[in-house]
Each structure stands twice: as C-alpha cells, then as structure tokens.
User: Which sequence fits this backbone?
C-alpha cells in the first residue's frame, strides 16, 4: 500500500493485475457500456490511491475495500444517470477465457460468489440483484412491491448473513 | 445516529444504497467497535457478490492508462501550494518530532520487528495526515493546529495530534501514538479546554506491533477552545499529553530520523 500511496508503477500494476478485471466487469455490467466501464476503472484506482493511507488490513480484506470503492462509485453513477436504460444483469452466460495466474484467483472468487448466491432463495436473489447490482434502495423496493419497508430490510439482512455464512464455509474448506 | 439506527441501516450501507445516511453511518462506525464489527461482516459479504458477475475483458491499453493517471495524480498532489504548503510544513515538522520521540522509545524495546513496523506506520501517518488535512481544508478561515504528545510521568512513547477547526464545516481531529507499552489498556483519548470541559475523541483497545494507534475523525463539536490533548489509561492516569498550537513546532537539530 505504501507503493500505491507513492503512485509507484509496480504497485499500481500489481493492484491492477489483481483487481482490474473485476472492477472493469462491475463497470460494464452495472453501467452498460465499455466507455463507462473504462472511466469507472480509472476512477476506482485513483480513489484507491487517494484513500490508500486509510486502508487498515485489520479492519477488512483488500478485496472488500477495493470492490466496495468500485461498487459505491458505480451505484452513484447509476443513480445519477436517471433515465438511462439499465443494462441486463449478466451473472452466468459468458465463459471465461483460459485463465492466467491472477485470473485463476478471480475464478475461485467467482465460484465462491456463485455458490453463495445459490444459497439464497429466489426472492432473496431478486432482492440482492435489485439493490447491489441495480442500485435500488430498500424504500424504492418496498414502494414498488407494496410491502412494508421493514420487511425489505429484514430480507436484505437475512440474505447478506446467508452470503457471509457461505463465504465462511468456503474459507474453512 | 445511535447504534440501533445504524444497525438497522447497515445492510443497505453494505449494499451501497444507504444514500444520504452513508456519511452519518461512517461517522458512527469510526467511533463504535461493535457496529464496526457487524459492518465489516456485512460489507465483506456484499463485496464478494461482485465476483459473481460474468467476467469481462478490459482493453489492453487500460492498464497503462490507469497507471499513468495514478502516477500523474501522485506527482501533482505531492507539490502542495498556498495554504496547504504551510500545513504540509507543519505536518512534516510534527512528524519529525513524533519520529524522534517514538523512535527513541521503540529503540529501547530493542526489537527490530517493532522498529520496522513503527517506521512503516510513520510513513503511513505522513500520508494519512496529508490526506486528512487536504480533505478537511475546504474553506477560508480554516485553522489547522498541530500538537506533539509526550509521555506522562513514568510512561514511554510519543505521538502527535492535528485538529482542523473550520467555520463552515465540521471540526475534526486526528491523534496518533507510537512506542506505547499497552499497560492499563484500554486508553481514552480526549481533548480538554483547560476549564473542565472535555471532548471524547476515541478509545484505544489495541496497539500495533510498534505500540502505535490512531484515532479521531469528525467530532460534531466546535473544537475552538479545546487545545489540550490527553491519552489516559483505564485508571485515568496520563499516558500521553500535549497542546495543539497553530504555529510550527521546532524539531530537534538532529533532524527527522525516525529510522533510529
């Protein structure tokens, strides 16, 4: 992280090798165009550089920190661009290319994420898709579906706890 | 915002859809370890979802563009100007003193690992301070003050503090320490106005391998009168003490040599 803070090329390239593809993927899948995804990727790594001194490994994993930055920026942009048609979410329809070393680590992460999503009920999957991947708030979902806000909040918490448990089981394997 | 309200909103915060509540939640999390623990778990779960998306391949040129953008930005912001230059000078001077005080204390521990950890921490503190002040200095009339913390009687270690008092923004303070022995934990960090009023800044429950900690953030209080910085142990005994001043503290003639 000291290398990133100094803008050191090697450190930035190492971080990009690990997270460039998932960050670009998030940009493309949430924002819908390659231009928006490229712009988001640049913004994410610039934000990571700006906030590098705040990263505390005792408070969470690097992947959580960086992907949270990426997701927050993507959702901010998604909600700002109201009126732009939202892209169709793609979770499973593309076959990854032959993986390199870093891609292999990403495939393992992806396998774990898909397993975690598989542990959710259909209703929970839809709820996660509408919030995390499309940027809808709990209140917007409650109003759209005509159900109490508290019910949406409870289901969101329950879904995240299931994902966390699935991740814990992956870590134990 | 209290713990119950924050915990009600944490799933939305983790999923990035807490909207206008996000900043208030972040402020609460900075000072509440229990809520922070739950937030860490929910954020970890949410962030893992990103990897479920079908992978897309970025253009080959994007890596070079990202590296160039970070490199250019890093080069630019390392040449502060105007009011920030004076603040940078204050920070450099304060950190030099922290390095001397903390470095001496750590050297007595005779531990290479601890010394190395402390050196890394000092480098990180330098950037953290700069980022903190850069973001806090957003308007005229803003005053950044620096204080060097020295050990209380019979104690070891050192530290520094920086406060930012802004007429049109929320006042902030950051307190760091290093070379502490952990005796009497948890430590209580507070500001005092010298007239019996205190502002609670944070609680230190763990130290890093160099005996260091950092705590602080936005306070929600007017810190104009609060110039005394105190770090106390669980019995109220003073571990570190110092005074926030607007002027540049004078480093030792031996210069900034935290590497010991």
Assistant:
């Amino acid at each position: 992280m000291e290398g990133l803070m100094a803008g050191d090329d090697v450190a930035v390239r190492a971080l990009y090798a690990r997270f460039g593809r998932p960050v670009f993927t998030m940009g493309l899948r949430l924002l819908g165009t390659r231009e928006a995804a490229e712009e988001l990727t640049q913004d994410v790594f610039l934000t990571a550089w700006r906030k590098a001194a705040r990263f505390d490994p005792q408070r969470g994993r690097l992947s959580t920190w960086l992907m949270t930055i990426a997701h927050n920026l993507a959702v901010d942009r998604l909600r700002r661009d109201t009126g732009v048609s939202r892209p169709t979410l793609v979770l499973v329809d593309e076959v990854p290319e032959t993986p390199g070393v870093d891609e292999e680590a990403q495939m393992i992460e992806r396998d774990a994420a898909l397993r975690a999503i598989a542990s959710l009920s259909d209703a929970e999957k839809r709820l996660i898709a509408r919030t995390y991947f499309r940027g809808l708030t709990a209140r917007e979902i409650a109003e759209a579906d005509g159900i109490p806000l508290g019910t949406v909040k409870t289901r969101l918490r329950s879904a995240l706890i299931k994902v966390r448990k699935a991740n814990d089981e992956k870590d134990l394997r | 915002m209290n713990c119950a309200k924050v915990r009600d909103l944490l799933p939305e915060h983790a999923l990035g859809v807490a909207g206008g509540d996000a900043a208030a939640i972040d402020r609460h999390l900075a000072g509440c370890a229990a809520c922070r623990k739950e937030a860490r778990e929910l954020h970890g779960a949410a962030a893992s979802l990103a990897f479920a998306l079908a992978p897309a391949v970025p253009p080959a040129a994007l890596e070079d563009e990202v590296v160039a953008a970070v490199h250019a930005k890093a080069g630019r912001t390392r040449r502060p100007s105007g009011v920030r230059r004076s603040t940078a000078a204050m920070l450099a001077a304060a950190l030099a003193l922290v390095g001397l005080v903390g470095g001496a204390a750590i050297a007595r521990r005779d531990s290479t690992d601890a010394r190395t950890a402390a050196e890394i921490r000092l480098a990180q503190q330098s950037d953290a301070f700069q980022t903190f002040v850069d973001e806090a200095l957003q308007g005229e009339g803003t005053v950044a003050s620096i204080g060097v913390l020295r050990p209380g009687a019979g104690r070891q270690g050192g530290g520094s503090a920086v406060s930012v008092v802004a007429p049109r923004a929320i006042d902030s303070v950051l307190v760091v320490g290093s070379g502490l022995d952990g005796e009497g934990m948890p430590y209580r960090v507070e500001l005092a106005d010298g007239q019996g009023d205190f502002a609670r800044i944070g609680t230190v429950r763990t130290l890093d391998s160099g005996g260091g900690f950092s705590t602080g953030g936005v306070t929600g209080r007017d810190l104009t009168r609060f110039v005394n910085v105190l770090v106390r142990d669980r019995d109220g005994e003073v571990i570190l003490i110092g005074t926030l001043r607007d002027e540049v503290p004078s480093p030792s003639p031996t210069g900034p040599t935290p590497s010991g």
